[in-house]
C-alpha cells in the first residue's frame, strides 16, 4: 500500500516542470559552491597570505558544517514543512556567499564556508518536495533530473572557476556566480514551492543531533586532515578513535530515545544500507576522477614526461565539461530507466561505464581523447548513480522519513567525496619527484586503480541487492499469508513503483 499523500501540484505538466526547474537550481547551488573552491585553494593561500594547509580548511569547514546540519535540516523539513526550511537555508547560504566575496580574512572566509555548508540540506528537502507534490508517473524522472545536478553542478563549479579565476585573478570572483544562482533559486522557491503541512509529528532529537555531528566531524577531520597531520599521528588516530566511540554511543542513545533523530532500524535496513554504501563509494570515485584529471592535464610534459600543460580553463572546459553536458542530457533518460527497470539494475549499467572510464584513466591516459573519455564515462556513472539513489531511498522509507533518510545518504556522499579527495592528494603527495616537485606518472595509475576498485565494489553492492530482492520474492511466494514479509520487513525488496514500501 502506498503511504504517499495526495500530490498537490496544480497546473499539470507546466507546473511540474517549473517545480523541477526550481529545485534543480536549488540543488545546483549546493554542488556549485562545493566545487568552485577546489581549483583555487593555492590562490586562496597566496592572496590571504596563509599556508596551503590552512587554506585547506576552506573545504574542511564546509564539510564539517554539512555533517552537523544536514540530518537536522532533513528532520526539520519533515516536521515543519520543506518550504520554510528551504527558504531559510537559501537565505543563510546567500549571507555566507556575500561574506565570502567581501572578506579578506581566513577566519571570516571559514565562517562563510560554514554558512554555505547549510546548502547540503537542500538536496534531501528537494526530494521530499518532489515525493509529496508529484504524481507517481512523473516522480522517477523528476528525482533523476534534480539529483543529476549534484554531479553536473560540480562540473559547472569547476568550469566557472576556470572562466573567472584564470590568469591569477581574484579567487572571490567565482563566488559571484554562486550568489546569483542562490538569489534566483530563492526567488523561484518563494514563488513556486507549495505551502503544505508537515508530514511528521514530534520534535528534533537535539542531543542525538549533537552527538552525531560530533562523531561525523571527528571522522571527517581524520579523513580530510590525515594527510597534512600524518595518518599515524596522535591527532589523526585520536580523531578516528574518538569518531568510533562517539558514533557507537550515538547508536545506543538513538535506540533509547523515544523520538530518535534517525531510526536505528532504518539504518540497519538492507534497502537503505546499499544506497548509502553506493553513495559513499560514488563520492570517492567522483572526486578522485575530478582531481586526477585536473592535475594530470595541467602537468607540463616537458618537465614530467606526461600531461598536456593545460591551463585551469582548458582543463575544466575541454576535459570535464563534456561529462557535465552529457549528464544534463542523460538525466531524464536515466530517470525513465530507473522507473521502468529499478534502481539496482540501473546501477549495474552505470558502473560498467564507470569501470571503463577508470580503465582508460589507468592505462590509456597518454592521449587527450582517452582522458576526455575517462572523464565523460565516470560522469555518466555518477549521473546514473544520482538518478538511482533517491528512488531507492524513497522506496525504502515512509513519506514522513523522506527528508532525514535522504539526509543520511547526502552525508554518505559527503564523506565519500572527502575520502576521495584525501586518497588522491595522499597518493599524489607520496609520489612527488624531488627534482620538479610534481607527481610522478605512477601516482595517476594508482588513483585510476582505486577508481577501478570502487567501481567493482559498487557493482558488487548492486548485485547483492538484486540477490536479496530475489530471496525476498521467494519468501513471499512461499508464504502468501504475508507473515514472513512482516517478520522480515527490514530485509524486504524495493518496489518498482516509487514511494511504495
UniProtKB/TrEMBL annotation:
Region feature Disordered, mapped onto this chain: 472-501
Presence of keyword ATP-binding: no
Residue ranges crossing the lipid bilayer per the database entry: 12-34, 54-73, 85-102, 108-127, 139-163, 175-194, 206-223, 229-252, 273-294, 306-331, 343-363, 369-389, 410-430, 442-467
Domain Major facilitator superfamily (MFS) profile: 17-472
Cell location: Cell membrane
Membrane topology: Multi-pass membrane protein
A Pfam family: MFS_1
Keywords: Membrane, Transmembrane, Transmembrane helix, Transport
Protein name: MFS transporter
Amino acid at each position: 500500500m502506498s503511504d504517499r499523500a495526495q500530490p498537490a501540484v496544480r497546473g499539470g505538466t507546466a507546473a511540474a516542470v517549473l517545480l523541477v526547474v526550481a529545485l534543480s537550481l536549488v540543488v545546483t547551488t549546493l554542488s556549485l559552491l562545493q566545487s568552485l573552491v577546489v581549483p583555487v585553494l593555492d590562490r586562496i593561500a597566496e592572496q590571504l597570505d596563509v599556508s596551503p594547509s590552512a587554506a585547506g580548511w576552506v573545504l574542511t569547514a564546509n564539510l564539517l558544517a554539512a555533517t552537523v546540519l544536514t540530518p537536522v535540516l532533513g528532520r526539520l523539513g519533515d516536521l515543519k514543512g520543506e518550504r520554510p526550511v528551504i527558504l531559510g537555508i537559501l537565505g543563510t547560504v546567500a549571507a555566507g556567499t556575500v561574506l565570502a566575496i567581501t572578506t579578506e580574512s581566513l577566519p571570516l572566509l571559514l565562517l562563510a564556508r560554514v554558512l554555505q555548508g547549510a546548502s547540503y540540506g537542500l538536496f534531501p528537502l528537494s526530494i521530499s518536495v518532489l515525493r509529496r507534490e508529484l504524481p507517481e508517473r512523473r516522480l522517477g524522472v523528476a528525482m533523476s533530473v534534480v539529483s543529476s545536478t549534484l554531479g553536473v553542478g560540480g562540473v559547472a563549479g569547476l568550469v566557472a572557476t576556470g572562466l573567472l579565476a584564470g590568469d591569477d585573478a581574484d579567487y572571490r570572483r567565482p563566488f559571484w556566480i554562486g550568489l546569483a544562482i542562490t538569489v534566483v533559486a530563492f526567488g523561484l522557491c518563494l514563488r513556486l514551492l507549495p505551502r503544505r503541512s508537515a508530514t511528521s509529528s514530534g520534535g528534533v532529537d537535539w542531543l542525538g543531533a549533537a552527538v552525531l555531528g560530533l562523531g561525523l566531524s571527528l571522522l571527517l577531520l581524520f579523513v580530510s586532515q590525515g594527510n597534512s597531520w600524518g595518518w599515524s599521528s596522535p591527532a589523526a588516530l585520536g580523531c578516528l578513535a574518538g569518531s568510533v566511540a562517539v558514533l557507537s554511543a550515538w547508536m545506543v542513545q538513538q535506540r533509547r530515545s523515544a523520538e530518535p533523530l534517525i531510526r536505528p532500524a532504518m539504518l540497519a535496513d538492507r534497502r537503505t544500507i546499499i544506497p548509502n554504501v553506493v553513495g559513499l563509494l560514488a563520492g570517492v570515485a567522483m572526486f578522485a576522477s575530478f582531481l586526477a584529471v585536473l592535475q594530470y592535464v595541467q602537468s607540463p610534459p616537458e618537465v614530467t614526461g606526461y600531461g598536456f600543460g593545460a591551463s585551469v580553463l582548458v582543463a575544466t572546459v575541454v576535459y570535464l565539461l563534456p561529462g557535465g553536458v552529457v549528464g544534463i542530457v542523460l538525466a531524464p533518460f536515466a530517470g525513465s530507466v530507473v522507473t521502468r527497470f529499478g534502481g539496482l539494475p540501473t546501477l549495474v549499467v552505470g558502473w560498467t561505464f564507470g569501470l571503463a572510464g577508470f580503465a582508460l584513466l589507468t592505462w590509456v591516459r597518454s592521449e587527450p581523447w582517452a582522458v576526455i573519455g575517462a572523464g565523460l564515462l565516470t560522469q555518466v556513472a555518477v549521473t546514473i548513480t544520482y538518478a538511482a539513489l533517491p528512488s531507492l531511498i524513497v522506496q525504502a522509507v515512509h513519506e514522513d522519513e523522506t527528508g532525514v533518510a535522504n539526509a543520511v545518504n547526502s552525508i554518505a556522499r559527503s564523506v565519500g567525496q572527502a575520502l576521495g579527495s584525501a586518497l588522491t592528494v595522499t597518493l599524489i603527495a607520496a609520489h612527488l619527484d624531488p627534482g620538479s616537485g610534481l607527481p610522478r606518472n605512477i601516482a595517476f595509475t594508482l588513483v585510476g586503480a582505486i577508481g577501478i576498485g570502487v567501481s567493482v565494489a559498487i557493482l558488487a553492492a548492486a548485485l547483492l541487492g538484486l540477490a536479496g530482492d530475489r530471496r525476498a520474492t521467494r519468501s513471499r511466494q512461499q508464504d502468501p499469508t504475508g507473515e514472513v514479509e512482516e517478520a522480515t520487513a527490514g530485509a524486504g525488496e524495493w518496489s518498482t513503483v516509487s514511494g511504495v514500501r
